[in-house]
Amino acid sequence: MGATEIQVLNSLLQRWLVKEFDEKWIFVSLSMESIISYFETIPSSHRSLLLVGGITLFWILEGFVPLFKFDYKKWRHALPNLFFTLTTVIINFLLAFLLLKTSDWTVVNDFGILNWLPSMPLWAYIVLGVLLLDFIGAYLAHYIEHKVKPLWMIHLVHHTDHNVDTTTANRHHPLESMIRYAFTLFGVFIIGVPIGIVMLYQSLSLVATQLGHANIRLPKKIDEVLSYVIVSPDMHKVHHHYVLPYTDSNYGNIFSIWDRLFGTFMKLDREAIVYGVDTFPDVLENGSIKGLLKQPFQKYRKPTQ
Q: Would you say 245 and 146 are in contact if contact means Cβ atoms under 8 Å apart?
């Protein structure tokens, strides 16, 4: 084969590679655009289905591959947790317009971290937006709740569950639901996130927290591998151990990068985990809706070191 033929073949090969790359890139871009378009106008019924469907799926899995075989009446235990899930849903629904208004304002005014960065592919824009929202709306909010005493007393409601399962995921006092919402709102503002990415983040966050709290036993190796990217079930269970320093670790919700980056990642053998908070051991009060509603207003009790 002569030099001319080789040059022709190289030229044809290059054109083919460019064409293939362009077609795949166009497909990825269109897929990303379709995802964002869906979440920009995601119906409330779909979000409700995600919530109920997630609880149902992990509830069933807990029956087949439980991490712990709790000696409890599952529905009785779920009642206060589902009550607080409902209050969280109501608060988020009533305040949803603030997220939309804030998001739209940042886009129109070209405000926020994402809008100040150089141009990037849509997929990178989405990933970075979700990552940063996870940092401000979940990790940072969670970390501060553990470090500020009045906020810890509010967050305490989430930690005083002695039988952590998927229904514990949204066991938040109404005051905490508003605090978490404020952090998310601030995140949307400072990051400059379009509403499609905000809704995508909230959907991923919901599924992630249900998975993290689910009383399921994954093979240890699989759980460990997952924990390098996302907050795996075993990783989050360490956070629910009843004494320090484990309670003050593994604050992440979707991604584990923040705990690893800021030195708050910890390990503990899952068989050694005991749920609850050592200074609030009253099982009956911690399972009572009335008792839990009053819990943030009790006197602060310093955790055992």
A: no
